[in-house]
Amino acid sequence: MTLHRIWYENDTRCIAAHFQPAALLDLALARDVDMHRVLRGTTLFVDDILQHRIRIAPAQFLQLIDNTQRLLASDDTAFLLGQRLLPGHYGAVSDALRHADHLQQALDLLIRYRAILSPLLAPRLLVDDHHAYLYWIDSCGNREQQRFVVEATMTAVHALCRWQSGEKLPWSFHFRHAQPRHIEQYWVHLGNDIHFAQQVDLMKIPREYLVRAWPQAASLAGTIARQDSEQQRQTQGWSSSFLDRLFAHLLRHIREPLSLERVAQDFAMSPATLKRTLKKHHTGFQEQLDLVRKHVALYLLHIKGFNNEEAATYLHFHDSTNFRRSFKRWTGFAPSELRQHLSTPI
């Protein structure tokens, strides 16, 4: 199977500058930061934003984030940005979010139109008998800005849900990074159910909240907005990033023998080109393969209830000893140790 190149990369001009980047610039302006200093190194000018015709690459947006972080030097910047992001002012997809019937529909929209609504982080939804897990995958090689992007994106979803539902939903938040010194910002903007040093960046909520009706839902307006969103999606030209598409491909074929050469062929590129593309995103093939294997292993052990031998067999390890050794390399813990350490199943 050969995949068509319909993804964007971190140097693809795919983000409308008057979407998320403008929200960040507005935040900087509100704090009297000089725009020329904020835009330094991005090759952007203020007029580019105002003209509503410029698209920028994820790498430019990440540089803009880095500049803003340094110039504002404030612990609440990511959280304040997140409150401005959703439903946003992104055309039909924002209208569709405003008129969503319930949380499930809003999350489906967020995932389907992630290239527009969340270009730097790819959302994925997993539901078991008791909970829904919204977890996030790096779309563009975010590097030092990953924590900022995760904080802003989770805040955006939390704020959207609170506004649409008319109540504070019982989300719990799980972050891969260690507890920072500004823990009070998490409490203020997200609540008290916060967990750090986890294996996955995710939000968890009881399953029953997925289909509770939202008071601001508008059936007819929502239907029209979703139809228009499809047109916007086609006009956009990209539905996901390269790293997002790679994660999905590896996940789909995780029980098969996977090599750089085979995956390169599936992506219609040479092994050398695949290596260069991964390097451009500050990662490598083995790192991405291990990431997917870790996610699958966590799912098997902590949601499906597999034992080590069953998980090893599923992932085609020769024996459980090799699986345990690899699992510790992926997570830093043996499977038995991680069961005691984790505050959420995945």
List the helices and strands and how they pair.
Blueprint: E1 7-8, E2 15-16, H1 20-30, H2 35-38, H3 46-50, E3 55-56, H4 58-72, H5 77-85, H6 92-98, H7 103-112, H8 114-117, E4 121-127, E5 131-138, H9 146-165, E6 172-174, H10 183-190, E7 194-195, E8 202-206, H11 219-236, E9 240-241, H12 242-252, H13 260-266, H14 271-280, H15 285-302, H16 308-314, H17 320-331, H18 335-341
Parallel strand pairs: 1-9, 6-7
Antiparallel strand pairs: 2-3, 4-5, 5-8, 6-8
Helix pairs in contact: 1-4, 1-5, 5-9, 6-11, 12-15, 13-14, 16-17
What order do the helices and strands follow?
EEHHHEHHHHHEEHEHEEHEHHHHHHH
Q: Per the principal axes of the C-alpha atoms, what is the gross shape?
A: globular
CATH topology of the largest domain: H-NOX domain
Low-confidence stretches: none
Number of strands: 9
Give the class-level CATH name of the largest domain. Alpha Beta
Helix content: 40-55%
Share in β-strands: 5-15%
Rg for CA atoms: 20 Å
Model description:
It is a single chain. This protein is α/β, with parallel strands linked by helices. It has 2 domains: 230 residues, H-NOX domain (Alpha-Beta Complex), CATH 3.90.1520; 89 residues, Arc Repressor Mutant, subunit A (Orthogonal Bundle). It contains 18 helices and 9 strands. The strands form 3 sheets. A 5-stranded mixed beta sheet has the order 4-5-8-6-7. It has a two-stranded parallel sheet with strand order 1-9. It has a two-stranded antiparallel sheet with strand order 2-3.
